[in-house]
Amino acid sequence: MPSYPKNYPFYGWMPKPLGIIILLFFFLPILTVGGVYSVNSTEMMSGLGIISEHIQFANFVTSIGMAAFAPFLYQLVCVRREKMMCIVGFAFMYIFSYICAKTDSVFLLALCSLLTGFLRMVLMMVNLFTLIWYAGGMEATRNITPGLEPKDTAGWNKLDIERCVSQPAVYLFFMILGQSGTALTAWLSFEYEWKYVYYFMMGILLISILLLFITMPNYKFPGRFPINFRKFGNVTAFCISLTCLTYVLVYGKVLDWYDDESIRWATAVSILFAGIFLYMDVTRRSPYVLLDAFKLRTIRMGALLYLLLMVINSSAMFVNVFAGVGMHLDNLQNASLGNWCMVGYAIGAVIAMVLGGKGLHFKYLFAMGFFFLSLSAVFMYFEVQTAGVYERLKYAVIIRAIGMMILYALTAAYANQRMPFKYLSTWICIMLTVRMVVGPSIGGAIYTNVLQERQQHYITRYAQNVDLLNPDASTSFLGTVQGMKYQGKSETEARNMAAISTKGRIQVQATLSALKEMAGWTIYGGLICMIFVLVVPYPKGSSSNLVVLLLL
């Protein structure tokens, strides 16, 4: 275990309460600074002339960078140089934010997002472990150090109960802080130009660097730096393979899948570098990930649960699409609606802590999580209509967030049962890859493609009933024509504008019908997942370690 100077990482004159506040403040740039911000995607698209898929792709690439950090977890958190690592990390994040604010290159956006994601995970873990030590006097690294696992069943069971109680609380803290950052960026992008989001974050980074210089001395790390840089070959292959896979899933719809040459090339490159990654991992003495971790049933099941969760959770688009198409809400109103998820997170965390602390079997907790996801889809099924009420949509957001929090917080707890600590970093890499890249990419591809297909279906269906022989359609069309003529439009202009208006109404109605149909299928999907988690066999006994998966 590492040793600490007195009052580490601060100077001796620093009061402990103020030191805790400063360490908590550092999470603000860590959790909010990113390569791109989804809440200002509309402004970025108009300002840069790019499509929404570019923004979505850059967001996924950020997650790939976060997953790429995982195998370095233990080595980096044991480097007790909070000041040095945070200054270097914040400085690079400042540079990346500046590039994102100035560039019009999608490639640079993606590259900066990848590197920012890696830095976010490094700083998040380093700051978390430092905060745990400084605030609570607990050396959290002992819970990830191979060889320090509990020696008996009672020890594992104790840790399992502790994790089920504390993990949702820690998840709640970080998810609320992250959502607060999202709300802030939404307000900045709405009130000012979208670039001001980057400038504000750059200001936060400069304040953080200034605090580091003022409050912390420079501690030297004894011995050699623990990272084996040969692993960065594996990192490169890992990132290229996942990035190409994500490219296929994100751009498949707009590029017509394998009719496009770039999709075919991306698929081939993804498979090629996946093979290179596996070869390098198997043949090297110091593997990037431990592939035999997949022998653990809990890890396989945990990855599957996260995949199911993130695919079903992609139904969150229902609220955004309905609010935008059906109610014509702006980005700020849409983002404000998303803030209600914090209420759902709080409720879900309380449920997970209370029932998990009482030792309720994981299968019932997982079934409860999928039940809430299904219930949210039920709400949207009946709410999607031309006379929908904006204030009512918050209930769908809250209900979905409850289920998401339960599954988010406890799936990692389940997957980590009786797991040797040597597999911890590998599991985190698997978890982040499935939870933040593969699952959302697949879910997004499914939902967006199905939505597009069903929209076209309903447009064709409704358009067949719209002609001047239909009394209602004729009355509406001729009324619009007369209104345009009263405004001074010519007969041709009036008829063209009436036709555009009719087309718009058909498109809105088709979108709402497609959303309602997809909500119905999501209900069935959630119920199937409920049945699955109830009937699948679970290993006898359960337990956990305590700290790292509190966050992840």
Describe the structure.
The chain has 552 residues and is mainly alpha-helical. It contains 20 helices and no strands. The longest helix is centred in the last third of the chain and has 45 residues, at 491-535. The radius of gyration is 25 Å and the shape is globular. It starts with 15 loop residues before the first helix and ends with a helix. Residues 542-552 have low confidence and may be disordered.
Mean pLDDT over the full residue set: 76
User: Hey, roughly how much beta strand do the residues contain?
Assistant: under 5%
- Give helix % range: over 70%
Number of strands: 0
Structural class: mainly alpha
Which series of helices and strands comes N to C? Answer: HHHHHHHHHHHHHHHHHHHH
Radius of gyration: 25 Å
The biggest sheet, with number of strands, parallel, antiparallel or mixed sense and barrel status, is: none
Compute the separation of the termini in Å: 23 Å
Shape, principal axes of CA atoms: globular
Name the poorly predicted regions: 542-552
Count up the helices.
Answer: 20
Features:
single chain, 552 residues, mainly alpha, 20 helices, disordered C terminus
Short description:
This protein is an all-alpha fold and 552 residues long. Helices cover 74% and strands 0% of the residues.
